[in-house]
Design brief:
Layout lengths: L63 H5 L4 H22 L8 E9 H4 L13 H5 L7 E13 L2 E15 L5 E16 L5 E8 L1
Parallel strand pairs: 1-5
Antiparallel strand pairs: 2-3, 3-4, 4-5
Length: 205
């Protein structure tokens, strides 16, 4: 409703709390083992992080705190970090090379579950990280557990968490089975001038 100054108190259709992005909602293809959410700190990206209705694990109880802290820079940074990590893993499970849009050009990654060894990949490695991601191991699905976030700077954060990875493998009897792998992951993100968050480093072992 307009005020005397011509301002309005009506909610913006482009705000964080808007339920429908102008880019539409992805209907399927999520690789995370939880239902879909409709709120996001990155409205131009599709994320599952802000789900409050699906079944929860005991180790995930801290996630409820993020929704209450979105009024502070720290709270928004913590929530955005978890959301971006979710989007990164979804891309790695869906189409690994599509994850490049979340990865900084100077990022370093050591992930033996993607590359079969713990060697660090970067833009200067041989072959470079960008090429390695186009031919890395593919996983069917993932589940993050108890992500912990710490601020490094006003526009930089680090995370540590456990992740469960799933993929189909052919067993000795010729039947297809499910392989489950548990990993510990640490990563760091920084916010660039455009407002997007980019992965700077990841270690998974």
């Amino acid at each position: 409703m307009p005020s005397m100054l011509g301002l309005t108190t009506d909610p913006s259709p482009h705000g964080i709390q808007n339920r429908e992005s102008k880019f539409g909602r992805r209907q399927n293809g999520s690789m995370e083992l939880m239902p879909r959410s409709e709120n996001s700190l990155t409205p131009h990206l599709d994320s599952d992080f802000f789900n409050k209705k699906g079944p929860k694990h005991d180790e995930d109880d801290d996630d409820d705190d993020d929704g209450d802290n979105l009024k502070t820079i720290k709270g928004r940074n913590h929530a955005a970090a978890k959301e971006m990590e979710t989007l990164l893993w979804r891309a790695l499970c869906d189409k690994p090379k599509s994850a490049l849009k979340y990865i900084a050009k100077d990022a370093i990654i050591s992930n033996r579950f993607l590359f079969d060894d713990p060697e660090t990949r970067s833009k200067d490695s041989d072959p470079p990280l960008e090429e390695e991601l186009k031919h890395c191991n593919e996983w069917l699905a993932y589940k993050m557990h108890d992500p912990q976030v710490v601020e490094i700077d006003l526009m930089a954060v680090a995370l540590a968490y456990r992740v469960t990875l799933f993929r189909q493998i052919e067993e000795k009897n010729g039947q297809m089975g499910m392989q489950t792998v548990e990993a510990t992951v640490s990563s760091s993100w920084r916010q660039v001038a455009s407002g997007d968050w980019m992965l700077c480093s990841m270690f998974a072992g």
